[in-house]
Design a protein that fits this description.
With 600 residues, the protein is α/β, with parallel strands linked by helices. The protein has three domains: 5-252, Alpha-Beta Barrel (TIM Barrel); 295-443, Rossmann fold; 525-600, Roll (Archaeosine Trna-guanine Transglycosylase, Chain: A, domain 4), CATH 2.30.130. Helix content is 34%, strand content 20%. It has 20 helices and 28 strands. The strands form eight sheets. The protein has a six-stranded mixed sheet with strand order 24-28-27-26-23-25. Strands 15-14-13-17-18 form a five-stranded mixed sheet, covered by helices on one side. It has a four-stranded parallel sheet with strand order 5-6-7-8, covered by helices on one side. The model has no long low-confidence stretch (mean pLDDT 93). Bound molecules: zinc ion. Zinc ion binds at residues 182, 184, 186-187, 210. Residues 182, 184, 186-187, 210 line the site of zinc ion.
């Protein structure tokens, strides 16, 4: 448990936190760059105390409320003789942990990933992690992305003594340079010739100042990107300068469990899918697995597979609008599935969820082998699971989309009808007319879903996606008369009891009212049990008694306790709510005070 550290904002494993320093009420923000010189010379940050396992003071760390400045201890590698002592210690009351022998991580990308992730798993979520003496302007963003909260300038200073000039993208030797491509106070005050003319010590000191300044600027940028929720995009750009760091990111992308537990379920901004690493983001994997595990198609006879559009949600794009107009009332007979990279398959009812309505990918018509294989695997899994649901599968596709579909259909031994000629765009009049007439011939006057039923399907599918399979049927009961108000996508679901849920397109989620929450509370794990109080505004982590393991940041959650019932948005994962002693767990949107029966 920490006393002087509090996480305020998360972006995956990266966090912005507040570290309070002794005296003057000074606070610093993480990711934090420590000035190693001031640490050792007794300057501002010396009030951070590190007590190692070998120190006689170590036992003090197990006592609560006895410290009045940030303190931490050292995490040793498993093979270290003192590691067992640390493991055997009772829970420690510290604000941060320091990863020992961090520089040995730089030997291989696997070690880099292994050491940091193992350390993060060993420490409580509300305590900071300091990885000393390895930060550079090149790797700082990646360190923050992995969940490192504190770095220092040791490495940058050491490099300056070796005559290395650091830039965001690379390191250069001062001896090889003809200019100083920077406008920090050091570089703008002298020329490269003047710098070289200085004594070795002076030169190193000036370089150290420059190196530290650009590292400081980098850390400021990282904090802003975490705040904006775009650190991953920045990291993908950043690692390009080094094959070591690119390898680290690729190894990190195999750590699905680590990132799944820490990545928000929804964001407000567009996910940029511009590199091969973007395809392996946890958001992409999560969406694909939920389409399989938390989605069931409606019982319509025909599946129509369509290509994606650049504009999101797809149905508001010009191409999909043309399709919708051409199909007319037959829409109630078909089920629409959108084929896309990198998300694989997007059922129409889920087109508003994050990241289906929130991604951008360069469109060139060229799909590389990895992209094809991934999208094909998604389509194969979808058809394999749901094929019995349909009497007929129509693919209104061409080019790579059609090739992928044909390969999958052949593998599964499924018959697919193609309604688009190879040299014809999908949304031409002729192509759409061909599609419509095939559907019309097959359906005739068979029963079809009404517009209202299709709208209610969106709520059911989104509820299943967010709260678990089956919750949609509890939110809107079979045969129940409901109405939809508002204009798509700003729908509200209204029953005779009142509003049950709304679509929040800005997040790609549905939000529940307390009435809606009552309908599904027995059927979902997205429940937070709280203490004996009526919350106002937000619920803090210490007020949480228990929370569903599957809850992620920005999830819509139902909270309940003896005195209150309500709904809100999770601000941390369920496991963090349980394990943390600090921080906001839920932003409350609606709360009902419960009448309690007094037994005394
Ligand atoms: Zn400079």
């Amino acid at each position: 448990m920490s006393r002087f550290y509090e996480v305020k904002k998360r972006d995956g494993a990266a966090r912005i936190g507040r570290l309070l320093l002794k005296g003057e009420g000074r606070e610093m923000q993480t990711p934090l760059l420590l000035d190693i010189e001031s640490l050792s010379s007794g300057g501002g940050e010396d009030k951070m105390e590190v007590i190692g396992v070998e120190s006689p003071l170590f036992t003090e760390l197990s006592k609560e409320e006895t410290w009045n400045a940030p303190r931490g201890t050292v995490i040793l590698p498993e093979i270290h003789p003192l590691s067992a002592k640390l493991k055997a210690a009772p829970p420690l009351f510290v604000d941060f942990f320091v990863l020992a022998f961090a520089s040995s991580m730089l030997h291989t990308p696997e070690d880099f990933v292994r050491r940091v992730i193992d350390a993060k798993r060993r420490i409580p979520p509300d305590v900071a992690l300091w990885v000393p003496a390895i930060a550079t302007v090149e790797n700082a963003a990646l360190l923050a992305y992995m969940g490192v909260d504190i770095i220092d300038d040791t490495n940058a200073v050491m490099k300056s003594y070796e005559g290395i000039y650091q830039l965001e993208e690379c390191e250069l030797r001062v001896d090889d340079m003809t200019d100083l491509p920077c406008n920090c106070p050091v570089c703008s005050s002298l020329s490269i010739e003047e710098l070289r003319a200085r004594s070795a010590k002076e030169r190193a000191e000036l370089l150290a100042k420059h190196d530290r300044l650009i590292l400081e600027r980098e850390v400021k940028k990282i904090r802003e990107y975490i705040r904006a929720g775009i650190l991953r995009e920045y990291v993908e750009m950043r690692v390009r300068s080094s094959s070591f760091l690119t390898a680290v990111l690729r190894f990190l992308d195999t750590e699905s469990e680590y990132f799944e537990r820490r990545t928000p379920v929804a964001r407000k901004h567009v996910m940029k899918v511009n590199t091969m690493e973007s395809l392996r983001r946890i958001e992409v994997k999560r969406f694909a697995s939920r389409v399989l595990d938390r989605y069931r198609p409606p019982s319509t006879q025909i599946l129509v597979i369509l290509p994606c559009s650049a504009k999101k949600p797809y149905s508001l794009s010009q191409s999909h609008r043309r399709f919708i107009t051409a199909i007319g009332d037959y829409r109630g007979n078909i089920h629409e599935l959108i084929l896309t990279s990198p998300l694989g398959t997007v059922p129409r009812e889920l087109e508003l969820v994050y990241p289906a309505a929130f991604y951008d990918i360069p469109v060139t018509g060229y799909w590389d082998a990895e992209e094809r294989a991934w999208v094909a695997s998604c389509l194969r899994a979808y058809l394999d699971r749901n094929r019995d649901n349909y009497d007929m599968v129509v693919a209104h596709l061409r080019g790579a989309y059609k090739e992928i579909c044909a390969t999958v259909a052949e593998e599964l031994g499924m018959e697919v009808i193609y309604t688009c000629e190879e040299n014809e765009k999908e949304y031409t009049k002729e192509a759409l007319e061909r599609l419509r007439s095939r559907i019309a011939a097959f359906c005739g006057a068979k029963r079809r879903l009404s517009r209202l039923e299709m709208g209610a399907r969106i709520f059911k599918a989104m509820a299943d996606y967010q709260f678990g399979l089956g919750t949609g049927d509890e939110l809107v009961k079979r045969g129940e008369r409901v109405t939809l108000t508002g204009k798509y996508p700003h729908f509200r679901l209204v029953s005779t009891e009142g509003v049950l849920a709304r679509i929040a397109p800005e997040y790609g989620l549905i939000t529940l009212t307390a009435k809606g929450a009552r309908r599904i509370e027995k059927f979902t794990p997205y429940i937070v049990e709280i203490g004996d109080f009526v919350p106002k505004g937000s619920i803090l982590a210490p007020g949480v008694v228990n929370a569903g393991e599957e809850i992620r940041e920005n999830d819509e959650v139902i909270f309940r306790g003896d005195k209150a019932f309500g709904v809100g948005r999770a601000k941390m994962s369920g496991w963090e709510m349980v394990e943390s002693e600090r921080g906001v767990a839920i932003n409350v949107r609606e709360v009902r005070a419960l009448k309690t029966v007094d037994c005394d």
